[in-house]
Amino acid sequence: MTVSVLVPSSLTREAEDKREATRKLGYVARAATIYRVDRLIVYPDRAGETGRFGDGFVSTVLRYAATPPYLRNEAWGMRDELEYVGVLPPLRAVSQTGSESNGSGSLRQGIVTEVGPEGRVRVNCGLQHPISLNTPPDMEVSEGERVTVRISSRRPVRAKLVDEPLPGLAVERTDLSTALGREDAGVCIASSRYGIELTVGRLETLAGRVGDGLTVAFGAPERGLPDILGIEASAIDADPSGQLDTAADDGVEPTQSADPGFDLWLNTVPDQGSEVVRTEEALFATLAPLSLQE
Fold this sequence. Notes:
Alpha/beta knot; alpha/beta
């Protein structure tokens, strides 16, 4: 099952400075890591960006946070957006382990540091020194490229390059409609205080539907998904299923962008005790119940 989380480029719009904005993004990345999110997607919300910490800043810091610590210096170097990455909480992501007898071992990210003759390359994958590996016949790599390494033994070192997606959290940038339209998107949920309230019964129903994938979208501080999409809040919960009612009784006509493809509008913090639930808090509150199994 593929799990995707969508956050807006205006995610840090209320941050007073770069340090606070960086710390906020660190907790977003940590929530995604804890609940084994596969993709963390930043979608554009140009109208909500403050100009200081927009799309480029948000995606860069999140991609840095998702990079294994042993690769960060080599992969990123010095960048203005990364001035305060020292405040990022450690993700401590667990290694992905193979289960087949002929493919056992843990998957790790590596960076190709040198391409040599006869299909051999040197790869930094977090061991004491870069290791020399054979490139599979149907695989081409270049210096500086990130690759997936399967390590079956550390002493002595036994490892090989594998043509598989990079393990860990992937951070991407794309629009809502594209993200929701992917084949592996599964059940697409809009997290909103105006959605239908999550109950034990609804959670049981959802648990039976998310086996093929789950995509959850969140809004920004003081700018939830209804504002971002140009939807009147009263048009959201008119349908008892929690889906967007495009013909609400109040006559509100949603904009064309108002229906990007959500299956359900869901309120995962019913009767909230604070006027505002921050996006990073909403991630924890939403992903925790949705990660429960039947």
